[in-house]
Amino acid sequence: MALTSLVVCAEKKAVQVLGQILKELSIEVENCEDLSAAASRLAEQHYDALVLDCKDQAAAMELIATVRKLAMNRGTLIIALVDGREQVRDIFGQGANFIVYKPVSVERAGSSLRAARGLMRREKRGKLRVSLHAPASIAYASAENVAATLLDLSEDGLALQSERRLPPRCKVYFHFSLPGDKSTVRLSGDVVWQDSSGRVGIRFVDVPQTSRRTMNEWIKSSQARLARAERNAPKPSPSHTHSPTPNQEQEPASEPVAARFAGLGLSASSSNRRIQSRYACRLGADVFRLGEGVPHRCTLSDISSGGCYVETPAPFASHTAVEIVVRTRDLKLRVRGVIQVVHPGFGMGVQFNLTTADDRDQVSQLIACQSSEDSLA
Q1: Contact 48, 22 (CB under 8 A)
Q2: Is residue 67 in some structural domain?
Q3: 83 and 64 Cβ atoms separated by less than 8 Å
Q4: Which of 232, 269, 282, 293 is buried most, with the most CB atoms less than 10 Å from its CB?
Q5: 280 and 319, same domain (yes or no)
Q6: Which of 108, 283, 269 is nearest to 195 (CA)?
Q7: Are residues 97 and 136 in the same domain?
Q8: Both 112 and 164 in a single domain?
């Protein structure tokens, strides 16, 4: 089923730019200039995204509130078009997911809409996936027996880390063994996305019955093990937490299931662990003790809107205030937090301290970009 969007805006140039970007992202576009007419459409039809001009802020916020009460569109992603930063806090507080500053341009709107597209795709994906770390051998075009590392696996596809950039839209042939299973899986798939860090998303095309059975049984048993581990995990201490800002559900960073399954090459699929979704990632980060200028180079292995897990052989002490800096091709995130859990030699869980709307916007966009890269089209 195609993704759909409703653009509520009367500025023709903005509508043209937004329509161009949305169509490039394979999202169908409807335009409506009048907010009351838009409310009627939203009451009758589901849309995956609502792009809303907030020129009349009071009327726009009323429409956002209405959408959030509609069963059909309660989960619709809302991208607000605003004139200035003074509008951002109230609009986020009412329930918007992303902000695009006017005047609308390809550069300004592109990153937010691509990020939103990633979240829409994740919401539509129904298959559970399990994160793992396992070697694989791949072949494609004129390349044979190229080493790669599996990052996650579902019934329909997988993600891998490759040292070489694969040809776009090429067919890839695999053979690999899953952690704890001696059977060899052989299959082929199509490249559907890849990023600058070497991660590649594959959608399965030809899967022999024996390989399909091996993967499905492994996924089910892995999910069962992770569920048992999560139930038995110690609860994080509620101390040294800050009060959440309005309309922001905070979560304390807790011990990653990955630490308990490192020996199996298996980690938790972060999208399946909590009501507040965590997303598996491999992002380089500089972590500073608050007030100090010495960076500690670390790796973020999962992230949510409330916190993240930082892998480092020398974690800081519990309750240390820190600042984390993450740079990607599209954005730079600088966020403060507090160490909640510590695993010596492995890493530390950080609870974010998001005090401004800009902080929340940055984290949301990083999560959405990560979701977009990790999802299969």
Answers
A1: no
A2: yes
A3: no
A4: 269
A5: yes
A6: 283
A7: no
A8: no
CATH value at residue 99? 3.40.50.2300
Q: Can you give the pLDDT at residue 369?
A: 72
**How many distinct structural domains can be found in the chain?**
3
Question: Pairing mode, if any, of strands 296-303 and 157-162?
Answer: unpaired
Strand-pairing partners, residue 338, are 321, 351
Angle at 48 between CA 301 and CA 104, to 5 degrees: 85
Residue reference for tokens 């298959």 = 127
Q: Is residue 72 domain-resident? A: yes
Residue ranges in the chain whose pLDDT is less than 50? 1, 123, 125-126, 235-276, 374-377
Give the other-Cβ count within 10 Å of 7's Cβ: 23
- In this structure, the answer to whether residues 143 and 211 fall within a common structural domain is yes
Q: 92-132 pLDDT, tens per residue?
A: 778 888 888 889 988 878 877 887 776 675 545 445 668 77
Of 124, 156, 185, the position where a domain reaches its end is 124
The pTM of the full predicted model, rounded to 2 decimals, is 0.40
Please check whether residues 136 and 23 belong to one and the same domain. no
66 and 134 housed in the same domain: no
Expressed as residue numbers, the domain containing 335 is 275-374
Paired sense of beta strands 77-82 and 129-140, if any = unpaired
Contacts of 96 (CB under 8 A, 6+ apart): 52, 64, 78, 79, 80
Please report, for the domain that includes residue 140, its CATH number.
Answer: 2.40.10.220
Residue entry with tokens 């809303």: 52
Judge contact between 160 and 175, C-beta under 8 A: no
> Could you give the CA distance from residue 157 to residue 176 in angstroms, rounded to a whole number?
14
What pLDDT score was predicted for residue 88?
78
Q: Where do we find the tokens 């990653």?
A: 256
Cα 337 to Cα 97, 275, 361, distances in angstroms: 22, 21, 16
256 located within any domain = no
Q: At what angle do helices 106-124 and 357-374 cross, to 10 degrees?
A: 60
Angle CA(148)–CA(154)–CA(160) in degrees, nearest 5?
15
Residue 15's H or E segment, with its range, is: helix 12-24
Please give the C-alpha separations between residue 187 and each of 163, 202, 377, in angstroms, as whole numbers: 20, 11, 19
Confidence (pLDDT) at 32? 92
Q: For residue 260, what pLDDT is reported?
A: 35
Question: What is the residue whose two structure tokens read 């937490």?
Answer: 241
Asked if residue 59 lies in contact with residue 42, where contact means CB atoms within 8 angstroms, the answer is no
Q: Report d(CA 349, CA 311) in Å as an integer.
A: 9
Q: Is residue 255 part of a domain?
A: no
